[in-house]
Amino acid sequence: MRRSTSRHRIRRNARQVRRYGAEPIVLLSDDLDLAPLVITAIARALWRYRSELAPFLTTASMVGTAVLLHDSAADHWPAVLSVTAAAVGAVVVLRRWLDLRLIEAVYAAAVLALVGGWTSAATVIGPFTPPLPMALAVGGVVAAVPWWAHRRRRARVRVERKLAAWPDIAHAVGLAGSRVQSALVDLWGYRVRVALARGQTVEDAVAKIPALESALGARRGAARIQPVPERADRMELRVIETDPHADAIGWTGPSITSITEPVTLGLFEDATPVRVSLLRRHALVGGVAGAGKSGAINVILGELTACPDVIIWGIDLKRGMELLPWASCLDRLATTPQEAESLLRDAIAILEARADALAGDGLRVWEPNPDAPALIILIDEYAELVDEAPEAVRHADSIARRGRAVAVTLVAATQRPSQKAMGHGAVRSQMDVRLSFRVREQRDVDLILGQGMLKSGWHSHTLNAPGKFLLSAPEHDIPRRARTYLIDDHQVQRTASTHAPHRPLLDSISASALHAVKTHGHGHEHSSEADLQQAREPDRNGRHSAVQDAETALWEALWCAPSEGISIDELLRVTAMSRPWLYKRLKEHSDAGRISQVSRGRWRGYPTVN
Ligand SMILES: Nc1ncnc2c1ncn2[C@@H]1O[C@H](COP(=O)(O)OP(=O)(O)OP(=O)(O)O)[C@@H](O)[C@H]1O
């Protein structure tokens, strides 16, 4: 009778669970039959919320440990301190291996020091001797708040809870018997390694993607499945919770330290990084005005300037508007057609000298290192070069055909690389890496990416935001939408000044060729060490004079402005500098009280007070 009453109660509880949701409502009573249910429910709740409860569990175990140590081994406190120091050291040393960011490592080290310090003090004087209880309470709360608030931890817990239901999910979608082996949570979602049940294939799982998205409560199109090459019964499930392309993706700094590593340009839609090698390869960046070409060049420069085994030269016939901010890291910057022509002619001299040196040594390719750096020439708006410096284009053509093996390569940006805009030469056909930002017309797709690409599904005319692009390269042969990282002007400035002191010098073979060109008009003469040193010296005068010209033009324009002031557009025209540069200068002058804003967007200089 009693037994049937408690069964009745349990059934009633179960009904309540169904009615009120997942969390069982436990009615406390003195009925002993309910005890196991209560204990199980508490244990489950403790397990489920173990991450949130971690601060309490840590505090409780500190007190327990201190009680034991104080009673039995009070003189062992130095051992506690030593273990603490070792643990803090391990966190510092193994930070990367533990996948901890700097701030997380600092937190972990601080908490470990707090726990160890308190426990050793409690070992000596007892955990309940003032002020230790108060110190524990205050320290516990202070340490727990960042833990509870930490976004990455919360995301990990949420994913763990979701994956705890994997057996049910797998059963529901038709992959019964598969198991989760590991899961990794990142900024954009999570990645799960799944062991498939006997006889199941990755293709079976791919067919269940829509069902999986539904069962995991993800948005449509959020899940991707990839095979694991070495095991047919394993797969990797990627769930993207935040669309990486929804907003601009900030650049977090260079990802490489050598040109032999692939540069990282941005992220694909599935949040995997876009990596492409520029070693001994020419690159073409195309797309309409405002589509993000300069952004891509900035990212490329951010990466390349971090490499001490590459020398960078730049050609920017828009008076250096795009490349000037990087000038301290560019060994040469040409801003006029004449400078462009001589820069490319010098590059050919280097190319030929290197080719001769390689042939002499019986080598096939130039392996860049800090003593023998690669040379990359960035050309912003190639079409301007074609219009203004036809001779330079002939040199560029030659570099495009012969530069790869000797690591003298081009990165050219242009709005529409038609035969005319590319100077009817071989340059376009020699480009191994192609980045297509948005193009205006469908036929422009093939112009940038190559014949037949539009038909094969490379639809860069449908890209819908600045910075989005398609990448075609030997290691990227399927069209996947990507977005470049966005580097703001401050980052450009900071990165350029950080990297500038570490730029390499030209190798002696190349410097000797340059010296010979300067003195004899061709590149095969013997040069003294002093000559070489002079030839190696970066020629950054172009930069300084262009900036000074702009500063002077700006100041004169402001000073001579009429009483209603001069507009931003006019200032942009007279300085030929970028908008951010102009705004920065205006702010500096205005902060110093030298100029004033007469009305919205119109400025003028103050008359000097004597
Ligand atoms: N990756 C990106 N994410 C978000 N916004 C971007 C990105 N790249 C560029 N933009 C935005 O688009 C604007 C134009 O970009 P950018 O100057 O790179 O275009 P462009 O193709 O070089 O144009 P132009 O040919 O006129 O120089 C930038 O001011 C920036 O606000």
TrEMBL record:
Q: Which InterPro entries match?
A: AAA+_ATPase (IPR003593), FtsK/SpoIIIE/SftA (IPR050206), FtsK_dom (IPR002543), P-loop_NTPase (IPR027417)
Asked whether the UniProt record includes Membrane among its keywords, one would answer: yes
- Which keywords appear in this protein's UniProt record, sorted alphabetically? ATP-binding, Membrane, Nucleotide-binding, Transmembrane, Transmembrane helix
The record, for SUPFAM superfamilies, names: P-loop containing nucleoside triphosphate hydrolases
Gene3D superfamilies (UniProt xref): P-loop containing nucleotide triphosphate hydrolases
Identify the PANTHER family for this entry.
Answer: DNA TRANSLOCASE FTSK (PTHR22683:SF41), SPORULATION PROTEIN RELATED (PTHR22683)
Listed name of the protein: FtsK domain-containing protein
Q: What broad taxonomic lineage does this protein's source fall under? A: Bacteria, Bacillati, Actinomycetota, Actinomycetes, Streptosporangiales
